[in-house]
Amino acid sequence: MNGLSRKIYLELPLPTEDDPRSDQQRILDTLAAAGMKELVHIPVHILRKLYPLLDNAKWKITVSLAWNGEKWEVVEIEEGDTTAQHYGLAVDLGSTTVVARLLDCNNGAILKEVSCFNKQIQWGTDILSRIFYCKDNKEKLEEVRRATVESICECMDKLDASHSALSMVVAGNTTMIHFLLGMDAFCVFYTPHAVHADRPGFQLARDLDIPLKGYVYCYPSKSNYLGGDIISGMIDTELYKKDEISVFFDIGTNGELVIGNKEFLLCGAGAAGPALEGGVVRTGMRADVGAVDEVKICNGNIDVHVIGNPKDKYQIMHGKKTLQDNNKDTVQNCAQNIEEYLQENAKGKIEETMEITPQGICGSGIIDLIAELFLEGWIDIRGKLSPEKSPLIQERDNQLCVEYAPGLYFYQKDIDEFIRTKSAAHTMVEIMLRESGLDLNQADRFYVAGAFGKHVSKESAITIGMYPDMDRDHIINAGNSSLEGAQKLLLNRSLLNDIDQILEEMVYIQFAEVEDFLELMVAAQALPHTDYKRYPTVMEKLKERQKGIKL
Amino acid sequence: MNGLSRKIYLELPLPTEDDPRSDQQRILDTLAAAGMKELVHIPVHILRKLYPLLDNAKWKITVSLAWNGEKWEVVEIEEGDTTAQHYGLAVDLGSTTVVARLLDCNNGAILKEVSCFNKQIQWGTDILSRIFYCKDNKEKLEEVRRATVESICECMDKLDASHSALSMVVAGNTTMIHFLLGMDAFCVFYTPHAVHADRPGFQLARDLDIPLKGYVYCYPSKSNYLGGDIISGMIDTELYKKDEISVFFDIGTNGELVIGNKEFLLCGAGAAGPALEGGVVRTGMRADVGAVDEVKICNGNIDVHVIGNPKDKYQIMHGKKTLQDNNKDTVQNCAQNIEEYLQENAKGKIEETMEITPQGICGSGIIDLIAELFLEGWIDIRGKLSPEKSPLIQERDNQLCVEYAPGLYFYQKDIDEFIRTKSAAHTMVEIMLRESGLDLNQADRFYVAGAFGKHVSKESAITIGMYPDMDRDHIINAGNSSLEGAQKLLLNRSLLNDIDQILEEMVYIQFAEVEDFLELMVAAQALPHTDYKRYPTVMEKLKERQKGIKL
After folding, report:
1. Whether B25 and A181 lie within 8 Å, measured CB to CB
2. Contacts of residue B44 in chain A, CB cutoff 8 Å?
3. What interface predicted TM-score (ipTM) does this complex get?
């Protein structure tokens, strides 16, 4: 391991009249003899500990070192050999969820992973509310900063031994890092988008009020919308090292996109629309207990899986007939969701027989629903509902809607909103590839980061034209690549050079400045796309599901 | 100026859509464009200040930077151009007195110099008492540390604008630096003399509880007895750069000695004996108000100057006759003493007519007294009092003594003690020169540092054989070379390399291991020395004062 921290066991030669070197020099010399090549600084609080610790330890000590960007700093000194306990923390500072991992820095093993809600949520689930809450108000900014730090601390408290960890790497978007450092984040959204700090680098943990011995490294951001979480994702996926061209897509309220390989890196970001996080759809909700996260239309019925129920348990919204078979495959994706839910509610021990009733629909459910509506022909290529196709399609509040679960309706407006979102996402990828001189099908790998990549069905996302129609195995759920990249750096400080290289090579594309952006977006508003030929497998599926359909 | 701090005025280009660099990057880029070559770190507390400061300042700011050993750290950021106010502090952390200078770091001018007693004195005037007071007791050590810091803070309070200073350089002996940093200092005196830290380097001022924006640099020590004050003296006198060979001597309770030139440096230290600081002599006292600091024997009378009295005012201890003339020359040295006293007591405005009566005798007085006793023949070459020479020589408490002021007696034992001290000092110089293959008269310059060099009469010190009998102009009062060296470094950080070089080149001589040390010391116990030929000018004076003396 060549990480951001080191623990080195030293057997110091005893001071004698012939060797009256100072304790300080004795340690530094012995470190050098043990192969330490870089400069080492011993801060005063450690100098104060040397006596009587060295005597008590019979001159056998373990020195803990944290890298601060230019040199090692001794952050702890202990009696005897404690090198076996060498911990570090990787943190994904998400705007909704903070996830932290305790790493064994001797072997890279993940000792424990925990998460908690970002305590900023008290000022709004959307980032803008939070930014406006504390805009130009030092006291409120301090509240938000403290809530951010406390979110990390809550994770640390759940992780045993985390307070004895030496270093921490945090990856988060530009706003999250501004809040963590206590900086007003209005700049992120306000033109000309010159943020206050994009490369905070190594900061003393205590300066951030994080109870850690050493330094906190915050991943740098490329621009206001392309934050440290994406740079961390680059380090995780190693896109910048590969021969083949990859697309890296992080879709949430905003979509961040990187396309490239070892020779070039283009990046961009755009508002993908809150529809994906259930923010606009009338019955939309977060991927939480009670949310419909999977949808299948079968024999005219709508089967839904609800978060909180066992993975093979689903509920049926009867159309014309009764469902014959459970399709277990479609609900499998949801398993992880529930496991998390069960962990969260471990103390309560949810009764397995209890059925959670649906309360709304989350992003993955929406994508499934629209894909299924389309494949069944209940909506046309413009996404318009055809009431003649199912009794579940009704008119309410002067517009058409489909009842996807008892008393829960998905409206025409919701569909329209969502299609705008998916077309924005599609268009961003299309433009970026075009800027690289490539067609959509020339991307070799398609990484989807975050919750979207984890929970959304690849098939459904292709069906609606959100993902390109490519080899499914080349569509990769990058998982929490922000967290993974944080972990990688924690364990390998040579990646700091890679980060510099990535930032230097990355070219940021302003979508707003692309002339035909709107034109392309309109073309992408059809299902799956105006240009049907881009989606051959979707055409196959349509033919299979709607016998005799004319394409 | 190429000092430990910089203030740079920047007119930042305004952020635009074409130039949306972060504030942080904008500052770093503009600093680079202004010629900043080294790495610059912006800590989080400064990042927090960027907004709205940059806006308010209309992007015209002054950046304050402090050197931390490897890179610059931004320690302050201000609106507009404040480069004219650029301050730094040089501190001599003496065991008795702390002296601090406020420097204008733009031009090196000394804006103000102040001093105060080291608050450690409450635990004893001698260092050992202080060391034992807090030995192995964390709470008491913290008391001593705080007293040390408070002494520096008291000086800072007396210096206007000192709190806006950026950097501080402190020079002090090894014990003082241990106490400043909060380290047990018993190691300094306890064999094998492996101290806890000898190169503390740059530490954050706030980590030392010193109210300063940037860093505090503590001069490193060569060994337990050869502290940062001496290394600082090297930087001041530039002994290590010269062709000719110099002797640098700092005489106090301990004597520290460096001999060398640009090709070699030998150093050593030894107990010179507390006699020099009035610690052993029965009526000895510090060079404070009421102390006899100059002595002249004239026509059988002893004329003394007392600190606190005007420089030309003296008191006469009548022997046989009445004094005819005031010898103004001999009291001139004392002028500075009084000026200091008057400054200290400025508020009280001492009445000029009031006569301070002598309370005891300080080091410079003792050396004068012994020199005069010797030149007058009142003591012989072994320092033995001859009662037949003056009615002022009497027997009290079963030993001879001389009444140098009304009711104040200097005893045979005091003389003997002092002669041991002066012979130790002489022998140290002799051995060091011999180790360099040189005779006493081959030293080209003889620097005497500290209060001793400042107050002691060169003639008297030569007369008793403490200094070599050399060209008086080559005996140089190095003054507070510890403070001067601190100032030089503050204003020129390239001297950090010189310090490394000095520490590397210096060879420490253990006097205790020199075989014939005792033998040489015995030879040096005669006045001025057993080997009369070493002191030709003293011989001349003897002949002049004692007509017909047989040498």
Report:
1. no
2. 181-182, 200, 203, 207-208
3. 0.88
Show the beta-strand stretches assigned E in B450-504: 475-479
DSSP labels, B55-115: HHTTTEEEEEEEE-SSSEEEEEEEES--TT--EEEEEEE-SSEEEEEEEETTT--EEEEEE
Question: Cα separation of A114 and A98, whole Å?
Answer: 8
Nearest to B465 by CA among B377, B546, B545, B532: B532
What is the rounded CA–CA span in Å between residue B377 and residue B387?
Answer: 11
pLDDT tens profile A529-543: 999 899 999 999 999
Nearest residue to B256 (alpha-carbon basis) of B280, B281, B278, B276: B276
Query: What does the alpha-carbon distance between residue A548 and residue A546 come to, in Å, rounded to a whole number?
Result: 6
Q: What are the CA-CA distances from residue A322 to residues A365, A377, B404, B459 (Å)?
A: 21, 19, 124, 120
Cβ A39–B70 below 8 Å, yes or no?
yes
pLDDT in tens, A305-354: 999 999 888 888 888 644 344 444 434 434 444 555 556 555 454 445 57
Residues of A within 8 A of B69 (CB-CB) are: 41
Nearest chain B CA: its distance from A510 CA (Å):
10
Taking the Cβ of residue B183 and every Cβ of chain A, the question of whether any pair is shorter than 8 Å is answered with yes
| pLDDT class of A161 with cuts at 50, 70, 90 | confident
Using CB atoms within 10 A of its CB, is residue B503 exposed (0-12), middle (13-18) or buried (19+)? middle
Comparing C-alpha atoms, which of B303, B434, B419 is closest to residue B365?
Answer: B303
Question: How far is B304 from A129, CA to CA, in rounded Å?
Answer: 83
State the DSSP H helix or E strand holding residue A24, giving kind and residue range, or none if neither: helix A23-33
Q: Which residues pair with A114 in a beta bridge?
A: A100
Q: How far is CA B405 from CA A313, B286, B312, B361, B370, in A?
A: 109, 17, 17, 9, 14
Cβ-based contacts of B503 with chain A (< 8 Å): none
Chain B closest-CA separation from residue A373 CA (Å): 43
Return d(Cα A394, Cα A388) in angstroms, integer.
Answer: 9
Beta strands in A286-369 (DSSP E): 291-298, 301-306, 315-317, 360-361
d(CA A424, CA B416): 99
Q: With beta carbons less than 8 A apart as the criterion, state whether B362 and B286 touch.
A: yes
Structure tokens at A462: 């292709």
* Residue B327: per-residue pLDDT: 44
Tens-place pLDDT, residues B155-173: 999 998 777 899 999 999 9
- In the β-sheet with A360-361, what is the strand arrangement from edge to edge? A315-317, A301-306, A291-298, A360-361
